Amino acid sequence: MTDTAAERQRRALVVFDAVIDLDDDAREPQLQVLCGDDAQLLDDVRAMLAADASEAQPFLGNAAAWGEALRESGEASHDEGMPGRRLGAWRVVSVIGHGGMGTVYAVQRSDGAYAQQAALKLIRAAADSPAARERFLRERQLLAQLQHPNIATLLDGGFSDDGDPYFVMEFVEGVPIDQWCDAHTLDLRQRVRLFGQVLDAVAHAHRHLVIHRDLKPSNLLVDADGRVKLLDFGIAKQLEGSDATATSDRALTFEYASPEQLHAAPVTTATDVWQLGIVLHRLLSGSHPFGLTRDTPLAAQLQRLEREPEPLTRAASHANAEQATQRGETDGAALARALRGGLAVIVETCLRREPEARYASVDALASDLQRWLDHRPVQAAHLGKGARAALWLRRNRLLAAAVGAVALALVAGTGVALWQANEARTHARVAEQQRGEAQLQARRARQALLLMQDALFGVAPQGQLEAQFSLNDLLVRARETLEQDPALDTHARKAMQRTLANLHAAGQDWATAETLYRQGLQDPAPPYDRDDATELAAHFGNYAQVLGVTGKPKDAIVAARHAADLRMQYLPDNVFEQAVSLRNLGDAYLGNGENDNARRNYEQAIAAFKRVDITDPIQAIDVLVASIGLARVLNAQEQYTAALQTVEDATAFADKQGLASSWDGRAVLLSLKATAQKHLGDAEGALASFRQATDIAGRIYGADNPALVNGHIGIGGALNDLGRAHEALEAYAHAERIIAGKAVQPGTEAKILAGQGMAWGTLGDAGKRADHYRRALATLDKVDTPPLMELKRRISAEASATPEAR
Question: Which pTM does this prediction carry?
Answer without folding.
Answer: 0.46
